[in-house]
Amino acid sequence: MNEIDEEKRLVRPDGLSVRRMRHDHSWSPRDLVKAIQRAHYIATGLNETITPNLLQSIEEKNDRIPYATLRLIADGLECDPVDILSE
Fold first, then answer.
1. Tens digit of pLDDT for each residue in 27-71?
2. Neighbouring-strand partners of residue 84
3. CATH of the domain at 23
């Protein structure tokens, strides 16, 4: 599988882990969305983030997302993507 395919591959995040880590930072959902944007901008110089609605779907329903989105969230939470991946 090439790198582009890997980034688009759908994965299932562990919504409870995402929520727990967000709470560990004492962040609201909007605070995490801003942290994701800030982390991505520092790493790439590009403004990219997720919507609060997507974050809610991840935390409450473990909705499947592209691996690239999982990486964005992990960057915002300052963790390894594997730490928030459902088993």
1. 999 999 999 999 999 999 999 999 999 999 999 999 999 999 999
2. none
3. 1.10.260
**Is the dihedral angle over the CA atoms 44, 3, 66, 73 positive or is it negative?**
negative
41 near 82, Cβ under 8 Å? no
| 85 DSSP β-pair partners | 13
- Number of helical H runs and strand E runs in the chain: 5, 2
Distance CA(68)–CA(52), nearest Å, equals 17
**Whether pLDDT at 86 is above 70:** yes
Reply yes or no on whether the pLDDT at 22 is more than 80. yes
User: Looking at the 3D structure of the chain, how many domains does it have?
Assistant: 1
Q: Which residues form the domain of 25?
A: 3-84
Sign of the alpha-carbon dihedral angle for 39, 41, 44, 46: positive
Instruction: Note whether 79 and 24 are within 8 A (CB).
Output: no
